[in-house]
Specification:
Chain lengths: 222, 482
């Protein structure tokens, strides 16, 4: 395999880390969703490139899922939820942006320091890929910790998952990647449905719980 | 007979899957509740057939000494819980907390969960196991939220987010294991099979394997309910239907523990790695002592027993972390006894909460006076879980404590301390729940007590006498675990 293939794989994987950093400081809901769609698109590029250089056509399916499901369907669904629940002004980071960014940079450094020396035995493709993937995972965790509302926590979770798919696609000849990405998509679909139900309850609770559930004769419990 | 045992794994997986599809289609709760019990019973029979001749390990499925213990326990508790659930849900329908459509969903999900857990236990592939555990988790999340009260949805959401983060970390660890293994074994499915991982474990790169294990321990440890990452567990136990609390405590925690144990076996095949034991010992002790103190401050009866599950998972993780034939034996025995006892307790608690219409400990008093059978059943269960002789948990705790004293007395001190603190809390609460002036409703219950007493009888029998074949079998498994 030539050097250029190697470089392009790194370029795209590094791009994913950069978009993760961008996600960290978004303070408006719609911008956050747009950047997340971008995150998914970069991921699908990275996976498609791995499919090409590893000659594993089934990875194109994973790339297509990333592009269609996480790049389009999920952001649109979240967009609708945000509009319908009227929560687009609710981004309140627990920690300030500057501090979050510093922590993020620290985590990327940590990922590189941890992974690179440890993986000297593994093949070079997997090596840098794992380092980038771990950075994306850690940045996603940081995002879940520093945000309070459900939508940005879910975006954080999905970016973690993008990092995992990147790692799985980069591991040479790893089987079941497609199955795992499908399983993850189902998980995410449930999470999104979950937010929808959850937020609806939150908003109606203050008004009248009975309006939603009068049919079930609920109310003795509390 | 041989044919049956060779195909038993297919039945253990096929019966719940087929039953789930059937239950999703059928209306009417009486019929579906019976089908649920029948399907779980058939699964138990299929699991018993695993005891016979074993099929050779394939690329996807594996039957060995270790997972047969887990599958049998899983099928047995799954069966008794479905029985309990059949007598539990009638009341829930009566009070309107569940409606028939939800019940259809509930039964289908129950079987999907059994399928997921059995698949996770029988999988010979770390990726397949991961997917199966995720499936089982998802179904329990949905069942925890099934009452759709504010608290239930919040508990389900918390379970979901924490469980997802845990499962994400576990997947990263899984990928790392594959990356290490494919260097030694070669790319492809073979590098994800347990049989190969254990066999070639000695040739893996130790540094990367260490990193992988940290991720796996934290990831699957979340599912086990170990202390720093346990936050989802009490809520999920308290807010869901009680049969689900019983299977969560009795089974799902074990399935996650099984994953940790398998990875520990891979680690111990390699001489160059960090010893996985001390990490597990530390997490176990932290869980034990933390949960023991938290027991004192609980006001909700299901939440209290959820904390007791954290405590016992801590003890079990400690035992497997200590390692060696004796501690592993104690760990296995304790796991089995805990599953049986804790699910029996939840059976009792489920009926108590239905009778009293509340889960608050302060509003449940004098049970032995108003409901002698149920009350004394609960007393027996709590006495067992607190670790009093002559019941099974006393046996396993005694074994663990004495073997720890012999090997590392300093570790035995926090262990005994934690057990005693928890013991005090449980007896204190038991005293107010079971005895004294009755408080709350004294309505009669038409519940079936067979599942509860079946479990308690097994726990008592194990405390009095362990049959030699069982001991030999557990000793074998303990040796495999290293």
């Amino acid at each position: 395999m030539g050097k250029i293939e190697f470089d392009i794989a790194h370029l795209v994987a590094g791009g994913l880390v950069l978009v993760s950093l961008l996600l960290l400081y978004q303070d408006r809901m719609f911008a956050l969703l747009r950047f997340f769609a971008g995150h998914a698109v970069v991921l699908s590029l990275a996976v498609a490139w791995q499919a090409l250089i590893q000659d594993k056509p089934e990875l194109y399916i994973t790339a297509a899922i990333a592009l269609a499901f996480k790049g389009v369907v999920i952001p649109l669904a979240l967009y609708r939820i945000v509009v319908r629940l009227g929560i687009h002004r609710e981004l309140e980071p627990v920690v300030g942006v500057g501090l979050t960014m510093l922590a993020g940079i620290g985590l990327i450094g940590l990922a590189l320091v941890v992974i690179l020396p440890l993986t000297s035995a593994a093949d070079p493709y997997a090596r840098e890929d794992l380092a980038f993937a771990l950075s994306v995972v850690l940045l996603g965790l940081l995002m879940m910790i520093t945000r309070r509302n459900a939508v940005s926590q879910v975006v954080g979770f999905m970016s973690i998952e993008n990092g995992l798919i990147l790692a799985a696609a980069g591991a040479k000849g790893m089987p079941l990647v497609v199955e795992i990405s499908v399983a993850f998509s189902i998980l995410i679909a449930f999470i999104v449905i979950g937010i929808f139900l959850f937020r609806i309850r939150e908003r109606f609770d203050t008004v009248d719980v009975g309006a939603l559930d009068s049919a079930r004769g609920e109310g003795e419990r509390r | 007979m041989t044919w049956l045992s060779l195909h038993a794994p297919a039945f253990v997986l096929g019966i719940p899957a087929a039953a789930a599809a059937l239950l999703a289609l059928l209306p009417g709760y009486r019929v579906t509740a019976r089908i649920n019990v029948a399907a779980s019973g058939l699964t138990l029979l299929a699991a018993l057939a695993l005891l016979g001749e074993r099929p050779a390990p394939g690329l996807f499925l594996l039957v060995d000494d270790l997972n047969v213990v887990f599958v049998l326990l899983n099928a047995f508790v799954g069966f008794t819980t479905s029985w309990f659930s059949a007598s539990y849900i009638g009341h829930e329908l009566g009070t309107g907390r569940l409606t028939p459509p939800y019940l259809r969903f509930y039964h289908a999900m129950y079987q999907v969960m059994m399928f997921g857990m059995n698949l996770a236990l029988l999988a010979n592939n770390i990726g397949l196991m991961w997917v199966a555990i995720e499936l089982a988790t998802l179904t329990t999340v949905m069942m925890v939220g099934i009452y759709r009260t504010h608290e239930a949805l919040e508990a389900a959401w918390k379970y979901f987010i924490l469980g997802s983060v845990g499962i994400a970390l576990a997947l990263f660890g899984t990928i790392l294991v594959y990356v290490v293994a494919q260097v030694a074994i070669g790319p492809g499915l073979g590098a994800m099979a347990w049989t190969n991982l254990v066999q070639y474990g000695g040739r893996f790169d130790p540094a990367l394997l260490n990193l992988a294990f940290v991720f796996l321990l934290l990831g699957y440890g979340t599912k086990v309910g170990l202390a720093p990452v346990h936050a989802w567990l009490p809520d999920a136990h308290a807010e869901g239907p009680t049969p689900i609390s019983a299977v969560l405590s009795g089974l799902l925690l074990n399935v996650a523990l099984h994953a940790v144990l398998r990875f520990k076996m891979v680690m111990s095949a390699n001489a160059g790695v960090l010893a996985p034991g001390p990490m597990m010992v530390t997490m176990g002790l932290v869980s034990l002592i933390f949960a023991a103190f938290m027991l004192y401050r609980r006001r909700d009866i299901k939440r209290m027993f959820a904390y007791s599950s954290i405590e016992h998972m801590g003890i079990i993780t400690f035992a497997f972390g200590m390692g060696g034939p004796l501690a592993n034996f104690a760990g296995l025995l304790h796991m089995t006894m805990h599953s049986l006892t804790k699910s029996a307790i939840f059976f009792a608690v489920g009926h108590v909460a239905q009778i009293k219409g509340t889960q608050r400990i302060a509003e449940i008093k004098g049970l032995t006076v108003t409901h002698p059978v149920l009350g004394w059943g609960l007393v027996l269960g709590v006495v067992a879980i607190a670790g009093l002789p002559p019941l099974g948990i006393f046996m396993s705790e005694f074994l663990l404590v004495s073997s720890t004293f012999a090997r590392d007395p300093l570790l035995a001190i926090p262990l005994v301390f934690g057990i005693l603190v928890a013991f005090g809390a449980l007896l204190l609460r038991l005293n107010s729940i079971a005895f004294g002036e009755p408080v709350g409703s004294t309505a009669r219950s038409d519940a079936s007590y067979v599942p509860m007493f079946a479990h308690l009888a097994l726990v008592l029998a194990a405390g009095l006498y362990l049959p030699a074949p069982l001991v030999e079998w557990f000793e074998n498994v303990a040796k495999v675990l290293g």
